[in-house]
Each structure stands twice: as structure tokens, then as C-alpha cells.
């Protein structure tokens, strides 16, 4: 039976109508029409549906709506605002350093796995701003890519970590670019 | 929030604006076949634009930009960017002045499928010559307006100026902006010399990447249409024998009585559910009790190769040069070996998804096909509509690497929409895609190669066993009863001289293809670089073995047997980049737990040349192989965008490690049992090698394609590195610890 539920998604409180056992993924992609989290396996094996729940990477395909409660859900769409809050920026950047690094490294092929890759990398850098390569591989190990873009993802995360060190200059660049 | 797709109407291509929202005119007339200048059969008719009109290919807009109508789909490999580079080059436009639009039937040119890494090689020449012809027409117009002879005009970013008087100038946009050319396409315009290239050959960043990084890119899985139902297919877990399809014994609709608003749709043996709420559809498909007839008609993984080898086959002698039998008798060394190569699955990372809105007399379909016109035919077939009444629009899905289930999903959506009388979106579940996928066929290779005392190949014989690719989609097989059929003749990859032997100078050569009937096997289709992983695994290990017998380093042995400069070029390029030095002959001394090894190999797909070097580590106690570094060099003739090709090589190197170390479809005598990422593991971050892509550039040559060629050499280089590390060779892949460890134990026993 559908019930009316309030959830906090991307800095907003939304009211959705869904059965409590509905996986969060179907609420986000169906009712809220968000394109970040996407279906990959429905088994929590691949990471394409990942979102942040209170900053923790979570597989939305196996997380029932009823388990979210008052916690804050951040999807790919909400990452710039989440990043801005984390780094006390006055307003969100268009793209986070991780997203910009994926472009700079030309890392993406089909791009379907990049929701999960971006979410997981963002969680990693929020906890470990300067990860070693081994830490990156270990953190990302639960996320699969069929196109074989892992090497460029590793480089992009390393690049994003460098940007975070020089955050001021990154924000300045964003301003200069008028983004 | 706005839906991703707000209208059901396919925008008809408006030449002037490349947009708009008009209905397709459905005219029923005969189509005609002709041959394009690049030798590709073009289909012309009222159901698709005439390839012999310039306006079919290019529109110039008033803002001095151009839309290029490209008949190929973007698969995340960058072909759209590269094809636009070719157009921008010939038009003397910058990359910011050219764009393409979404591919759809009726309005976009039919350039055939985006397959065989041929978008650039086969489609590029047409785009390029159309752009040159448009430029020629524009210069003629400018000449009249400016009163300057054509040969005294120059063009920079679409601004045509007098060479002597640059103030006399006019833009393309001013000349024809938002008006059609109304000219035939002849293919006769002169092309730029490679010496004048400004855009071609440059690392232009891929155009699709920024939207993908920002999460704004619309994949097929994101397409939503107001009022659509969510559909799921219901099939037994894992396909059985292709010839059998699946047979329904009974359906118990009461088993989903607790899920309201779900409708079960059955057409013969095709079963699906539709619901307004997606989760309801997912639950209903899982919960619906169907009893299926499940005959034990498969050989099972354990019996696969013996059954193939013993099968009654249709044989074809591919090539028979010289007298191989006599040459073997007089060779100094002869190696005869048998190799076994498993089924592997496409398994796109996001399972296939499709949308259909079927009306009584027409249908509109959106899906991730590699060939919109072929999908249109297949959908029309299950609906009982004429092809021109079905419109197909392409949305990129997740990397498919050959024909995965996209047409199956499109047919399923169409069948469900027709029965429900409403638009339906079908999302295959992970177990649908893994379990009912089209698989890269299993292969048995028997190879015999002889050398003389100088280490030169004297004779080479190869026999390959495999079945062909399926042509009947499962939805059609179940819903319509179309019998299982396989592609005929060379419609699917089989034993081939170019892929198996043409790199070497071989005086006596015999290649035989043994076609196995596929009815009692899994559905086959073209998985990235079809059969090349199998061919290279067999052939390149055998070549390595002969190098040992000849007392030569594997790199030197290959050099000695190759004359072709392309093959030598990639071999040298990869060896130099990897700093190849002759390998130690005696592998018995290294006794530590971890053995290091290095291997080299060659391979190809249809036209280009590739070579790879692999550095690996083998844990002698567990049998686990870790690939540390892969180097890969490709010669694809003219490489339009080296950045895109490097990305392709990198991806292929990682995929190659995955396919050689981990991937194998498993099945019982009844059904496929590898149904997800746990039962069909692929390479992960912690197992991923460092990669070094190398592009051997030939600006003065034709492009030959580079999206597949690295699979064979990279996989074989890993197998050769295992021998280099441990002295052990495996004749069957994937090289899992379960295979490697017993082989290591046997070798030291």
C-alpha cells in the first residue's frame, strides 16, 4: 500500500507516495525523476544506483524507503550543493572537483557507471582528502565498470584530490569561467 | 520537474532548424538498393532520406554553424566527435560550429550498423566527402556574391574571404543559412591533403563527456514518457538451448493477486507484466508463478567442448596454400595443440531498456540499438506492421560491445505496448540480461605449426569449431513462434586468414572452419572482437612455443616471421615502449612465492593491426594472477582523434584482463547459471593493471578502425606471460586460480 512519506533529498524535503518497502532507487528515479541513481543490478553488486545517505555511499536499489527516515539523501544532482556545504563555499560550483576531473582526464566512456563512481569518490575524498592509490582502489573496489575505465578513474580521483588542496584556486577558476 | 522526454512525437528532421515536432509521414512505396562510393550498399526510399542528396548529410544554419546528419550511433567510444572532426575539417569550420543530432529512422541517413569498429572507416569517407562537396557549393555561391573567382577565395571558420581583399567576405550562414542546398550528392568533390589538416588528428575532447559527468546525459534508461506503463519480462532463470526457446506449461495469475494494478500479458510463450508503478512491475515479474518446460538439452559447461568437437559440422576450407602436410613432415619442429575457449557475455553494465508506443497502424520505439533500421525491421516483424510504419529513435544505453539484448528489449516493449494499448517502458533485470544474453560463442581450436632450422614458419594449419550468431530474438521466438535461426555463411565471424595467420609469412597454409549447428547451444552473437580472443589465445601461445623450440626470444621470433610493415610497426612500437629485453630462457631458478612474467602478442579484428605486452605476477601458492601493466599499440591508419583511440585502447586492455582472467558463462544441461556479477565476476579496481596505450599514427592513410583490435593481443600476452613467469601453459581460459594452481602443482611434481 502506498503511503505518503517525507524524505530529504538534495537540500529539499519532498513528499512521495510509495509503499514503504519500495527501494529508494525507484522513488528517486520514478517519482522524483532524478537521473543520477540508475538501475544496474538490483542486487547491490555494481554501484550504479549509489547515493549518499548522511554522507555515506548507499546502494539505493536494495535500501527500502522506510529505512531512510529523517536522514539526508544526496544524489549526483545534489553533489555540488553537498560539496559546497562540506567546504563552506558560499554557493555551489557547477561541477565538483571530482566531476571536473572526470572531464579533464577524459575518463568516461558510456558513462553509465559514473553516477556510482562520482558518489563513491566524493565520499572517499570527504573522509580521506589525500588518498593513496591503494586507498582509492580499495574504496572503489565495490564499483564495477564494463568499459574498463578504472585506470582513468584512479587518475581523475588523484587529480580531484590535488584540486581540493588548492581549493581556493579552483573556486577562483570557476568564477573566472563564469560558471 | 520536467520529464526527460516530453513528447511522444518524433521530431521530423527539419533541415532548416534540425528540430521541430512534426509527425513522420508514413508512405508505403518500394525501396531501391544502390551502392555508395565507399562500396557500402545504401538503401533508398521514402522511408529514409535519399543518400544521394547533399541535404541528407549537411545543413548550414544562419548562425554560421552546421548540423551533420550522421548515420552512426554514439556508443561511448567517441565516434560522433571524430566524425564531426572530419566534417569540420573539410568545411573549414571549428569544432564549436558543428553538431550532430539524435539518430532516428525515416529522417536520418541509413549508413548501416555501428559495428565492426567501422563507423570512422566506413562512414567517415561519406561524411567527409559530403562536407567537401558542401564547401565546394558554398564557395561557388560566395564567388558570385563577392565577384571573386573560386580559386581566389579562402575560408576560415565558415567565413569566406577574397585572398587579395579580405574585406570582401561573407559567411556560410549568410550564403545558405536555414535554406536547403537542393543539390545532388555526387561524392566527387576534391578532398583536403593531410598536410593541411587542422582538426583531424587532434585530441579533441569528447563531446558527450561533460553531460555524462554532470549527470545530465539522457541514457535510454532515463527516458520517461507521461502515461507510460512499466513493463518487465517473465522468463525462466537463464536460457536453455537456443533451439528450444522457452515453453510455458502454466501461469498462475493468482500468485500476484496481492499486487494491485498489475496486468499479466501473454502471447504464446512470451510473458510480461505491466504496471503504473515500476516497483509493482518488478515485484510482480519476480513473484508470478509460471511453470516452464525445461528440457535438459544443453551440454553443460563440463561437456561443452567434447560435444562441439564431436558434432557433425558443416566444413569450409578457408584457405589452402601450398602443401601443409608435406611441409610438416620436413619441418625441424612441429607443435600440435588444442585450445578451448568459453562463452562470454556482453552484460552491459545497465541492462537493456526500451520504450514503445504501439498504435493500431503505427509504432514508435526508443532503444539502444546499434542499427536503427535493422531494429525497425525486427520490431515491425513482431507487430505485424510494415517497416515504414515503425519509427525507431536511438538513445545511448550502457556500453554494449556488440549485440547484447537491445533488439530483444525493443521487441518486448513493442509486444507489451501493443497488448496493453498504452506506451510501455521495459527495463531488463540483471538476470534477464545475463541469463538471456547473446554470448560470444565458445570455440575449440586445433592448431599445428612447423618451423625450419632457422626459426622460419614452414607450415600452419588451423581448425576451428564454433556455431554462428543467432538471428531470432528471444521475444520474437516466444511471442511469434519464429524458429531459432543462425546467420548464414560468413554472416558471423569464423576461422579467418586475416585474424589467424596473415601477420606471418607462411608458405604452406591450411585453415578450415567447422560450423557447429547452434540449436543445442547458447545464443551467440558478436561480442567485442568476435572470436579474436580465442584465435589469439591459441595462435599466439603456439607461436611462443615455437620460439622456445627455435631458441629465440618471442619478440625476435615474431620479427623473423613477419614481412608486413604494419605488423612490424605495432610490434616494434609496443616492444620499444615496454622496453622489451630478451627473456631469460631458464625459468626453473625463480622459486619465490610470487613469480613475475612478461609476454608479447599480436592480433587484430577486421582491418587494423595491434600488439600488446603484458607484465604479470603469479602467486604460486594460490594460483592467482595479477596483471600489473599492459601496453597496447594499434595501427588504425589515419587516427582522426588519438585521444579517443587511446581511451579505447585503455578500455580494451582492462576488458582483456577481465576476459582472460575471470569471465566464463556457466550453464547446466538445462540453463545458464551465471546470472549476476557474483556468478559472472569481472575485473575490479584492486585487480586493474596500469595501462599504456600507443597510437601508431598515419595521417596520410585511410582510417581503418580501432575499437576492437586490442582484445586478442592483450589477452594472449597475458597467457604468454604466465608461461614466462612459471613455465606453465594453459590451453583453456579464463586463467582462474582453479585452473592455474593445479597446473603449477603438476609442473613442480
Task: Describe it.
The complex is a heterodimer of chains A (179) and B (749). Chain A has 179 residues and is α+β, with helices and mostly antiparallel strands. Chain A has helices spanning 24-31, 79-86, 97-104, 114-127, 133-140, 150-165, 167-176, and strands spanning 3-9, 12-18, 50-53, 56-59, 72-74. Chain A has a five-stranded mixed beta sheet, sandwiched between helices. In chain A, a hairpin with a 2-residue loop joins β1 (3-9) and β2 (12-18). The mean pLDDT of chain A is 93. Chain B is built from 18 helices and 28 strands. By secondary structure, chain B is α+β, with helices and mostly antiparallel strands.
Task: Describe this protein with a few key phrases.
heterodimer, A: 179 residues, alpha+beta, 5-stranded mixed β-sheet, 7 helices, 14% strand, B: 749 residues, 18 helices, globular
Shape of chain B: globular
Strand order of the largest sheet of chain B: 11-12-9-20-17-18-19
| Number of helices, counting only DSSP H or I runs of 4 residues or more of chain A | 7
C-alpha geometry of chain A: globular
Sheet/helix structural class of chain B: alpha+beta
**How far do the termini of chain B sit from each other?**
68 Å
Provide mean pLDDT of chain B, rounded.
92
Question: What proportion strand of chain B?
Answer: 15-25%
- β-strand percent of chain A reads 5-15%
What percentage of residues of chain A falls in helices of 4 or more residues?
40-55%
The end-to-end span of chain A amounts to: 44 Å
Share of residues in helices of chain B: 25-40%
H/E element string of chain A? EEHEEEHHHHHH
Oligomerization status of the protein chains: heterodimer
* Radius of gyration computed on alpha carbons of chain A: 16 Å
Give a count of the beta strands of chain A, DSSP E runs of length 2 or more: 5
Outline the biggest β-sheet of chain B. 7 strands, mixed
Q: Biggest chain pair contact, residues each?
A: A-B, 58 and 60 residues
Low-confidence region ranges of chain A: none
- Using only C-alpha atoms, the radius of gyration of chain B works out to 27 Å
Largest sheet of chain A: 5 strands, mixed
